[in-house]
């Protein structure tokens, strides 16, 4: 897959996929999008009721969501077990071009960026005492999670119009089944067809304020 490194409006970088005419993150601000959608509306909300959160991320990509989640554990003391799916891992050459040091202002955090990408696949790795990473080189359709094995899903797949096979009723039934009661799924997407799939799976659907450049985002909650 051909990839181009591009700068977004908040100074952070993302990747552009010419074959899909799609960016990995919002062009309005990759950093702001990750912090708002996944950390604030996902992780922080989960930590209001849990001290230990089991996260499933759909799309490891540049590692930005994982890095910002790890950052939160450094200050909160919360424990996170982080499983992430990635069918097409980035090469070291592309990772080096992301220049996270240009927009990640916490120097301590940058010490963990390389270990996240260098961690071996298919096995849990304790990046810190409070953050354990397991990278799985697979696609979402092939992934078979155990029932109720996660508390939070970061659904960061490419947009529905780019990869419609990842936004089906069957996929969101799988996401519902892998969440524990009270678990949540968060995503930047707010399309009506997607929300209907969430509801069909059993989720309670919440429309929340979106990150810069988007009016809304979505959170699905599995009832207790």
Automatic annotation (TrEMBL):
Repeat is among the record's keywords: no
Secreted recorded as keyword: no
InterPro entries assigned to the protein according to its UniProt record, in alphabetical order: MnmC-like_methylTransf, SAM-dependent_MTases_sf, tRNA_MNMC2
CDD domains: AdoMet_MTases (cd02440)
A Pfam family that the UniProt record links to this protein: Methyltransf_30
GO biological process: methylation
MnmC-like methyltransferase domain span: 146-223
UniProt GO molecular function: oxidoreductase activity, acting on the CH-NH group of donors; tRNA (5-methylaminomethyl-2-thiouridylate)(34)-methyltransferase activity
Domain of life: Bacteria
Keywords associated with the record: Methyltransferase, Transferase
Name under which the protein is recorded: tRNA (5-methylaminomethyl-2-thiouridine)(34)-methyltransferase MnmD
């Amino acid at each position: 897959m051909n990839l181009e490194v591009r700068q977004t409006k908040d100074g952070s970088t993302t990747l552009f996929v010419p074959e899909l005419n799609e960016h990995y993150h919002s062009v309005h601000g990759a950093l702001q999008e990750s912090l708002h959608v996944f950390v604030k509306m996902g992780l922080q909300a989960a930590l209001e009721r849990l001290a230990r959160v089991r996260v499933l991320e759909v799309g490891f990509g540049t590692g930005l969501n994982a890095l910002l989640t790890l950052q939160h554990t450094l200050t909160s003391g919360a424990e996170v077990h982080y499983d992430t799916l990635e069918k097409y891992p980035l090469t070291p050459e592309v990772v080096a071009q992301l220049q996270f040091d240009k927009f990640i202002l916490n120097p301590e955090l940058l010490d963990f960026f390389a270990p996240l990408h260098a961690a071996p696949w298919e096995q849990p790795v304790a990046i810190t005492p409070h953050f354990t990473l397991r990278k799985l080189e697979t696609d979402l359709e092939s992934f078979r999670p155990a029932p109720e094995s996660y508390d939070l899903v970061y659904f960061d797949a490419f947009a529905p119009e780019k990869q419609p096979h990842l936004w089906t009723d069957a996929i969101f039934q799988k996401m519902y089944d892998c969440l524990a009661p009270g678990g949540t799924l968060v995503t930047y997407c707010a399309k009506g067809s997607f929300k209907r799939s969430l509801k069909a799976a059993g989720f309670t659907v919440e429309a929340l304020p979106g990150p810069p450049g988007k009016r809304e985002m979505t959170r699905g909650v599995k009832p207790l």
